[in-house]
Amino acid sequence: MPSIENAAEPDAWFKIEQGVFKAGGQWTIAQSARLDQKLRDLDAGSGEIITMDAGGVDRLDSTGAWLLLRTRRALENAGRTVGDLKVPERYASLLENLDRDDKRQGPDKPPPRMSPWQYRLYRIGKATVEAGRQGWRMLGYLGRVTVETGEMIAAPRKNLRFAAMMVQVEETGISALPIVGLLAFLIGVVLAYQGADQLKRFGAEIFTINLLGVGVLREIGGLITAIIVAGRSGSAFTAHLGSMRVNQEIDAMQTMGMNTVDTLVLPRVIGLVIALPLLTFYANIMALIGGAMMCYFNLGITIPVFLRQLNQAVDVSTLMVGLVKAPVFAFVIALVGCYEGFQVERNAASVGQLTTRSVVESVFLVIVLDAAFSVMFSVMGI
For residue 306, what are the contacts with CB-CB under 8 A and spacing of at least 6? Predict the structure, then answer.
């Protein structure tokens, strides 16, 4: 049976006598390497160890206490019934705290085996709970941003950061004109082509213009623009704020007493709320131009005829139905993008993960809101 005993030096030692594990000396981190090796060589399953007495310990730190607790646990796992671990009174609280923390953490247990359907059900439940928590946290963040926006409206000269807001209008609006215009033009071409292809069967090609005008102005123009902006500007908000989190710039701003919502969030929210309706109007015009060109080359409908039929098919209310949704979409996109940016952990991988999540959540919420608006306008008879 291995033991460590040295009467001349106050080093840590232990020995086993008549079923008692005795320890003494200085059980500190300086002695931990030697003690650890000797304790691992101890055969916990042999002998008749029934109690542990560390009353001879002169000095004890957390490392030594952990070694004593680990030894007791090894003896218990080997089937030995070990009583209380005796230590000097001045070290009793240290041992008790370490023992309580160890029991609270518990041993690493392998996860229970699940059948395939149980695992799928578990994944669905876990995702549902996480989605509920995410929605609750975002609702709280919405409340904070709403309060800050109200304070900004109440005292615009004090709280409004006009220069930062104009920068966001330029980055989210003006810089997005090429990609939004190109995609809207192509969507108008596709929509007109597919509509004409179906209406030719009934000899009603002229109503392709009605389909194009109502579809673009009420739904397609605003929805496609919001999705493009969510992928372009919403992800940029998350990536930018996430990088600031990684570089501890946001922590520095908070240390200086700066309001991060007022400084970083509101300019982005207000800038996007201003830019998205203008982008939507621009996308509507580009989609109608694309549809007009397709009608001219595919159906032989001239521009004057196109404009006359479009005037009969739509009115100002049709345009306003599409534009009134744009500020709501913009607010949601900016809110989600900024919220996820503040959730980034201090590593590069988290920036990419939350940027992806930001885009997915923004697109999902935009489509849900668009469906809600459609139902509401239908009930209202608009």
Answer: 209, 292, 295, 296
The 3-state DSSP class for residue 84 equals coil
pLDDT classification of 334: cutoffs 50, 70, 90: very high
Cβ neighbours around 100 below 10 Å, total: 10
Q: At what angle do helices 235-246 and 326-342 cross, to 10 degrees?
A: 20
- pLDDT band (50, 70, 90) for residue 144: confident
Does the structure show a pLDDT above 80 at 292? yes
Assess whether 233 and 375 both reside in one domain: yes
| Neighbour tally for 193: CB within 10 Å | 17
Number of domains within the chain: 2
Q: Which residues contact 77 (CB under 8 A, 6 or more apart)?
A: 44
- Mean pLDDT lowest among 59-73, 119-133, 239-253, 268-282: 59-73
Q: What is the CATH classification number for the domain harbouring 95?
A: 3.30.750.24
Same domain flag for 237 and 163: yes
d(CA 275, CA 256): 31
Quote the CA–CA distance of 338 and 318 in Å, as a whole number: 32
Q: Which residues contact 23 (CB under 8 A, 6 or more apart)?
A: 12, 13, 14, 52, 53, 54, 56, 57, 68
Q: Is residue 297 part of a domain?
A: yes
Q: Are 220 and 307 within one domain?
A: yes
Give the domain extent around 50: 13-105
Same domain, 246 and 322: yes
**The tokens of 250 are what?**
């946001």
Q: What is the pLDDT of residue 55?
A: 81
What six digits make up the tokens of 69? 């607790």
Are residues 272 and 169 located together in one domain of the fold?
yes
Q: Which residues contact 147 (CB under 8 A, 6 or more apart)?
A: none
Strands (E), 299-363: none
Least confident range from 268-277, 345-354, 363-372: namely: 345-354
pLDDT at residue 246 greater than cutoff 70? yes
User: What sign does the CA torsion over 174, 175, 181, 183 have?
Assistant: negative
Same domain, 231 and 343: yes
Residues 6+ apart with CB under 8 A from 3: 13, 14, 15, 16
Residue 277: which pLDDT band, with cuts at 50, 70 and 90? very high
